[in-house]
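Dear V.,

Thank you for sending over the compound details. I've combined the ligand you provided, flavin mononucleotide, with the protein sequence from our construct and run the structure prediction for the complex. I'm sharing the raw inputs here so there's no ambiguity about protonation or stereochemistry in the SMILES, which I know was a concern on your side last time.
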Amino acid sequence: MDCLNERKSSRDFNDTKEISEQTLSNLLWAAWGYNRADKRTAPSSRNKQEIDIYVVLKKGVYLWDTKTNVLKLIIAQDLRKKTGTQTFVEKAPVNLIFVCNKRKAEAKTEQALTEATYANAGYISQNIYLFCASEGLATVVRGSVPKEDLGKLLNLSENQLIVLAQSVGYPAK
Ligand SMILES: Cc1cc2nc3c(=O)[nH]c(=O)nc-3n(C[C@H](O)[C@H](O)[C@H](O)COP(=O)(O)O)c2cc1C
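Below is the predicted structure of the protein with flavin mononucleotide bound, written out as C-alpha cells.
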C-alpha cells in the first residue's frame, strides 16, 4: 500500500549521485527478472518475453542478459542525452530502453505486435515505478524517445522496435 501511495513520475534527478550496482541489479530483477523457471516479474502475451532492456549509463550502453544477470557492453560512450528529448534525461544516471524483439514476439500482425508489446512494457515500467517508490528513487517512463536516431546509434536491427524508455536516479532534493 505504501509503494502504491508513493508511486509517481519525477523528472528532477540528482546528477552526481550514482545508483550502486546492487541497486541496479535489484531494479532490473524487479522490472523483468525471472521469478520462476521460465516466467518473469511482469506478464507477457503468450509468454513470448519479447522485450530486451538496454541500460544507458554514463560509462556506456549495456544489454541486460536476464538469465545471467550480466550487463553486456554495447557501446562505451555516454549516450544518455540521445535517449530522449527532455533536458532531464542526460542528468538521470540510468536510462532504460525497452526494446521489442519482433522475432520473439511472433505476432500475426503489426497491430497485434504493437498492442502486446506496449502492454508488456507497461507492466515492466510499473514494476520499476513500484521498486523506485520502495527505494526512494525518482523515475519517469517516457514515450518521448527519438526512436529512429536512437535505433541507429544502438545498431538495432529491423526486427527490433523501441517501445518506451524510463529514466531512473536519486531525486535532486
Ligand atoms: C505511455 C506513457 C508515456 C509517457 N511519456 C512521457 C514522456 O515522454 N515524458 C515525460 O516526462 N513523462 C511521460 N510520461 C509520464 C506521464 O506524464 C505521467 O505518468 C503523468 O503525468 C501522471 O503523473 P504520475 O506518473 O506522477 O502519476 C508518460 C507516461 C506514460 C504512461
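A first observation: Residues 38 and 47 are 9 Å apart (CA to CA).

Warm regards,
I. M.
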